[in-house]
Every structure is written in structure tokens, then in C-alpha cells.
Design a protein that fits this description.
It is built from no helices and 11 strands. The protein has about 130 residues and is mostly beta strands. Strands 2, 4, 5, 6, 9, 10 and 11 form a 7-stranded mixed β-sheet that branches. Strands 1-3-8-7 form a 4-stranded antiparallel β-sheet, with no helix packed on it. A hairpin with a 4-residue loop joins strand 7 (about 65-70) and strand 8 (about 75-80). The radius of gyration is 13 Å and the shape is globular.
């Protein structure tokens, strides 16, 4: 089970930190990631991170503003979101990639994730 927290309503330029706690499975051997879905739009990739957190990948729209990290000891993944923009408004989902792709792999697409959390709403007003 993946459970997100940390969403909320903020002003443009503010920061938020999302957390994702995972239960029922140790995450240390799996790539993890975040995606988001705005009303009327498809779910889109935001960021992913490899097993040990040494490699990350980001969507162009969040590169330089968002930072993904993980703490395998706490079985958790995080998304630090800085310089938020109104277009970042969406439900944010934590995701786990069960496919064995090796320790250096960062999942590049939404389609490759296997498990999802219930989502947390992020609203950014101008």
C-alpha cells in the first residue's frame, strides 16, 4: 500500500513537500516515482528515482524546481516542490515499479509503474 501526504493549497512561488509511505513491501529494490493528473487530463510523469537514490529523472516541466528523494530505511519516497506554479495544480500520485530493471534504472513513463497510491491534491493559486 502506498499512502501520499503533504498536499495542500499554496500561492505561486511557494513550496510543498510530498511524502509517500509504503507498507507491505520493502522498496529498496524497486524504482519509485511520482506522477500527477490535472482535471480532464491524462496522468503525466513527474519524476522517478532508482533503488538507492543515486539517479533521478524529471519531466521537463518540473526540472530544476522539483526534487525526488527516498529513504529506504523508512520505506518512503519524497517530492520537494519549489517555485510552484498554477500549472502544477493536480492530484499527485506516488508509484512503484515492480519490474526488475536493475539498480540504476529510473522509470521513465507512467505506463511502467505497477502500483499507485490514492493521490494527494496540490492546488497552486496565482
Amino acid at each position: 500500500q502506498l499512502v501520499e501526504s503533504g498536499g495542500g493549497s499554496v500561492q505561486a512561488g511557494d513550496s510543498l513537500r510530498l511524502s509517500c509511505g509504503v507498507s507491505g513491501r520493502a522498496i529498496s529494490s524497486f524504482a519509485m516515482g511520482w506522477a500527477r493528473q490535472a482535471p480532464g487530463q491524462d496522468r503525466e510523469f513527474v519524476a522517478s528515482i532508482n533503488w538507492r537514490g543515486e539517479r533521478t529523472a524529471y519531466a521537463d516541466s518540473v526540472q530544476g524546481r522539483f526534487t525526488i528523494s527516498r529513504d529506504n530505511a523508512k520505506n518512503s519516497v519524497y517530492l520537494q516542490m519549489d517555485s510552484l506554479k498554477p500549472e502544477d495544480t493536480a492530484v499527485y500520485y506516488c508509484a512503484l515499479d515492480l519490474t526488475y530493471s536493475g539498480p540504476h534504472y529510473t522509470t521513465p513513463t507512467v505506463a511502467e509503474f505497477d502500483y499507485w497510491g490514492q493521490g494527494t491534491q496540490v492546488t497552486v493559486s496565482s
